[in-house]
Amino acid sequence: MGDVCPCGTGRPFDMCCGSLISGRDKACTAEQLMRSRYSAYVKKEVDYLVKTTYPKSRVPELAQSIADWMERVTWIRLLILKTDATTVDFVAEYMADGSARHHRERSAFKLYKGEWFYVGEA
User: Fold this and answer.
1) 3-class secondary structure for 34-61?
2) Is the N or the C terminus of the chain less surrounded, counting Cβ atoms within 10 Å?
3) Topology of domain 13-121, CATH
4) Cα–Cα distance between 109 and 30 in angstroms, integer?
5) Residue 9: what pLDDT?
6) Local structure of 20: helix, strand or coil
7) Helical spans, DSSP H, in the chain
8) Domain locations in the chain?
9) What pLDDT score does 14 carry?
């Protein structure tokens, strides 16, 4: 069936976040988009991350900033702490410069024209 999805659901990647990243399916919830964005960081899918950022939140250097971040870290796991309709509180564990680290964020999402987008920190 393929690799287990990095987002932590335990499902095969192609039947989980892979279907969103490929464009076959669309996220139905803010949490599902958050998980797929984490998986996109793991899989180095810059275009998906830019595409799923709310248009008004995109800055010209977004793609380069994401690519630079991807080259500096190795993702370990995603922990979803709390979700509601439009926010996801999470911790993403990663390795950088030989040290284990974590990124904690409460992310805001917006449903716009029938699709979920990442807006930024809530």
Assistant:
1) HHHHHHHHHHCCHHHHHHCECHHHCCCC
2) N
3) Nuclear Transport Factor 2; Chain: A, (3.10.450)
4) 6
5) 96
6) helix
7) 17-21, 30-43, 46-51, 62-72
8) 13-121
9) 96
How, if at all, do strands 87-96 and 74-83 pair?
A: antiparallel
pLDDT at 12: 97
* Cα–Cα dist 110/68, whole Å: 26
| Best CA proximity match to 107, nearest among 92, 94, 119, 91 | 119
- Pairing relationship of beta strands 87-96 and 99-112 according to DSSP bridges: antiparallel
The reported pTM is 0.95
At 62, give phi and psi (nearest 5°): -60, -50
Which of 26, 6, 45, 33 shows the shortest CA–CA distance to 109? 33
Amino acid at 39: S
